[in-house]
Hints:
The protein is built from 10 helices and no strands. It has helices at about 5-10, 15-35, 45-50, 55-80, 85-100, 105-135, 140-170, 175-180, 180-190, 210-230.
Amino acid sequence: xxxxxxxxxxxxxxxxxxxxxxxxxxxxxxxxxxxxxxxxxxxxxxxxxxxxxxxxxxxxxxxxxxxxxxxxxxxxxxxxxxxxxxxxxxxxxxxxxxxxxxxxxxxxxxxxxxxxxxxxxxxxxxxxxxxxxxxxxxxxxxxxxxxxxxxxxxxxxxxxxxxxxxxxxxxxxxxxxxxxxxxxxxxxxxxxxxxxxxxxxxxxxxxxxxxxxxxxxxxxxxxxxxxxxxxxxxxxxxxxx
Length: 241
C-alpha cells in the first residue's frame, strides 16, 4: 500500500538534466517571442536601405500571418509525433528564416525570410508548452508555465529596446535584429535535444486535411484583412469584402 505521507507530499522537481532541457525551451520561447517586436523600430532604417516603402508593413505582417497559421498545425503534429523532434524542426525553420531575413539584399527576400521565421516561431510558441507538459509533474507545472509567461512578457517589452540598440550601435545595424537571435536559437536547440523522445499514443482517425486547410485559410484571411485593410486597400472596397 502507498504511504499516506508519500501521497500527500508534493512530487519531486524535475531532475537537473530536465531543468537544463526546460532552460532550453525557455530560451527558445524568449527568442521566438522577441522577433515579434524587435523589428518594429528598425523598419524606417530597413526601408531607407532596401527601398520598397510600400512593402514595409509586410515585414511585420508576414511573420504574424504565417505564425497564426502555423501554430495550430505544429500543435496537431505534436499530438502524433511528440513535441521534442517537432520543436527541433521549428527551431531549424526559425534559424533558416532569420538567416534569410538577415542577409536579404532586397525587400521581397526580407519579407520571405520573415514569413519563414514566423512559421518557425509559431512552432516554438506552441511546442515549448507541450514539452513542459510532458516533462514536469502536473502539480509543479504552473511554476514552469509561469516562468514561460515571464519570458514571453519580457521579450515583448524588451523587443523595441533591443532593436533600437542594435540599429544604433556602430558596427551592427538592423540585420542583427535577425542574425542576433540565431546563436540563442541554436543554443536552445542543443539543450532541447537532451529531452527524452516520448511518442504519444496512436491517435484515433486520420489527419483532418480539410479542417487544417480551412483553419489556415480563415486565419490567413483574417490576419491579412487586419494588416492590409486601410493601407493596401481602403476599408470600403471589394478586396476588403
